[in-house]
Amino acid sequence: MSNITRLKDKLQQLTSIVGLAGYEDKVINYVINSVSSHDVKVDNLGNVTVKMNTVTDEDPLRVMIFAHMDELGLIVKKIENNGFLRVERLGGIPEKSLAGQSLVIDTGDKEWQGIIGTKSHHITPENEKYTVKPVNEIYADFGFRSKQEVLDAGIRVGTPVAYSRQFFSNNSIVFSNAIDNRVGCLTLLELIERLEGQKLPCELYIVFSVQEEFNLRGVIPAVRTISPHIGITIDLTLATDTPDLEGKAAIQFGGGPSIGLYTFHGRGTLGGLIPNPKLVNHVRKVAAENEIPLQDAAFIGMLTDASFAQLEHEGIAFVDLGYPARYTHAPVESVDLNDVELLIQLVEKLVFSFDKELNIKRG
């Protein structure tokens, strides 16, 4: 079985799991079962930390590599007497993508399928045909006839609602829900497997984090526990090779992994990451030495959970590494697994390059 086929199979397993921010438990269990032979801890928020090794030197170089498990979606905010559900955003749902979309609610013992309702086209007034309804005006239809039927199904106010599960591919290009960030989880699981039994120059912690799509801060308890010297976030970057994004940047499928050089989100969040310059240079050097192409990414409007993790302790040298993705935050996103394979290779090479001789101090 080729690496790409194996990655595709594992990614399909990961994206089939419903796990919204704050409700990642089934993803947590999948990860724990996948790494059960290692030193694994789960904190009270749900972050899964895999300690890969112990270095006996005094104050060893501690490296933390992490990716978030959660996906974005909706929550139930009201149950109508006739069984329809009013919903609210859980994360950065694009409202333009919601009309008519299929949904799933996982109540633990059953998955309920539904849709976002739309006004029948035949009687839609002209002035409504080209408008996007905000989330507080839409409703979900799961086929229930009454509020009591909804409650009997185990659905309550606050119940998470996800995009329906979909997965299809054309060779290495995959289309699926929850590419963001189950591809990151896939990368970490592959890294753990490939590092198995090898002697590492640093003390390595692999973390599967929570609540990134909610408030970007779910990983902070793990950061405070580990107190890393170096942090690497694994998450998507924006592929700009589609017709609607031509000229926005030069990030494309098949161009290899990305390195985040600037992220910022100014709408209330005031967060972002300007990575440690010496760490950036080191990543570039390792990529070049191993003939791994690296795509430069700088965007306003996107963030990773490094945005606030970098501010812990005395400050932590962070860099975002990623994979180009199309249609981000939409019900179906897309990724080229050739880029993911190169990302895994790059991170593996980086792990072996991190030792106490590496100078990442500013100035």
From TrEMBL:
It comes from the Bacteria. Gene3D superfamilies: Peptidase M42, domain 2, Zn peptidases. Keywords: Aminopeptidase, Hydrolase, Metal-binding, Protease. GO terms for biological process: proteolysis. Zn(2+) 1 binds at H68, D180, D235. Zn(2+) 2 binds at D180, E213, H329. Belongs to the peptidase M42 family. This is Putative aminopeptidase FrvX.
